[in-house]
Amino acid sequence: MKIQTIKFGNDGWRAVVGEYFNEENLFRVAEAFLRYLHSEHLNKKPVAIGYDGRKDSGYFAEQFAGVLSAGGITVYLSETLVPTPVLSFSVKNLHCGAGIMITASHNPSSYNGVKFKAGYGGPFIAEETRKVAGFVQNIPVKKFDTLHIERKNFLPEYLVQLRKVIDFEALSKYAANPSGNPSVIIDSMGGAGQTILEEILNETGWRAQTIFGTAETNFYDRHPEPIEKNLEPLFYNVSVTDAILGIATDGDGDRCAVCFGDGKWISVQQTILLLLWHVYHNKGLRGAVIKSVPVTDKVRVLAERWNLPFYDVNVSFQNLTDIMLQTDFLIGVEESAGFGIKGHLPERDGILSGLLFCEMLAMSGKSLYELWNDIKNIVGELHYRRIDIPAGTLDRDEILQSATHFKPSKNLEEFFIEKVRKLYDREKLHGIKFLFGDSRWLLIRASQTEPTVRIYAEGRTEDELERLLIEGKSLIGLPVK
Hints:
Layout: E1 12-16, H1 23-39, E2 47-51, H2 57-70, E3 75-78, H3 84-93, E4 98-102, E5 111-118, H4 126-134, E6 149-152, H5 155-165, H6 168-176, E7 183-187, H7 196-203, E8 207-211, H8 232-239, E9 245-249, E10 256-259, E11 265-266, H9 268-282, E12 288-292, H10 298-305, E13 310-313, H11 317-326, E14 329-334, E15 338-341, H12 350-364, H13 368-379, E16 383-390, H14 396-403, E17 419-425, E18 428-435, E19 441-446, E20 452-459, H15 462-475
Helix pairs in contact: 1-2, 1-4, 6-12, 9-12
């Protein structure tokens, strides 16, 4: 086992299990969190702790709870594994000072981690995470007791909350209409979402069936990230049944992906635009639209068309949360399939997002293809792509510094850079975006949670998109055909 300088990321701390994510380092993080609670005068409030289905997540949750209990903190420890949004809601609902979720989210099963949740039911903003990091010590402090630990079932109150956000009457009416076909396939990917969505929908009269609905430590040998290459089982099952929708949630249930009734993938960017359309048109909600930098510029187009306040923020949901807490927000969306809406939490919620799509069909009476065509009539065709490049021997810092001197080649001779946006985390450059106007842009970014360099681009046509991607590959030194 290795002791290292704990490196906190966007949501907290993640590392490879048995290597850096081990009991010794967990105690160091737990002790740092305890010191943080005392320093912020949150030690008189309880802390809620949940965990996902990864190997030993329940054990690590108990160990974390024991450290806080030994420090005099009342701990509400989940009776069983739960999705992250259930834990987040419980933090707010139970008036906790903070919350802890043992999970590595959508990372492979070889990882585990600790997510920090604030009293408002969302992720810590960056400043608070840095405070915790400042209390980490090199020597683990192994204080442990169970005196102040109380086991709780977090799920029932969360289900009550969903009924305040989702129109269950609309879902039931749609299911009762003979002309409707309320059938949906759900892929929980062996994650913490389990069969929660299925049970909710079946109660409203929908025919819902879950594949990989039992939480499994290795996620049935899949990477539990709901992106196209990982969802072939969902696409196939939807295509050979009469389902009108396919829904997938990730390893800890805070992200969501969907597919059309014929089993074809709906990209994250399409998903975002459909959700925005739904909350504005069908639910009649109003407020600020907040997106992260890599998300399609079509979001801005819709926000401006509807005269809604618009924010384009740095990568990670904690930055969205920061704006959500300061505004009357309508929706917050990130490129990695995390979505939060008005009336719920400043937090990602894959369970809620899946229900929103069912509600969308029920309230509109249209198919997803018809709804997408309605959106295209306003914003035009979507030409967007992301390419992930394993960092390997690439010097990510050197790539980004070199990119600051970028000038379009003849490949983009008619493009003019209108603006350059640099992305920083604690004064460290991790991304640079070149905006060419009219929803055309190129972004080079070093992932903050994985050894990966990412290229993002959006153009007005497929040809423009391909040329932008070629330029991006050239910028990081990849061979271009």
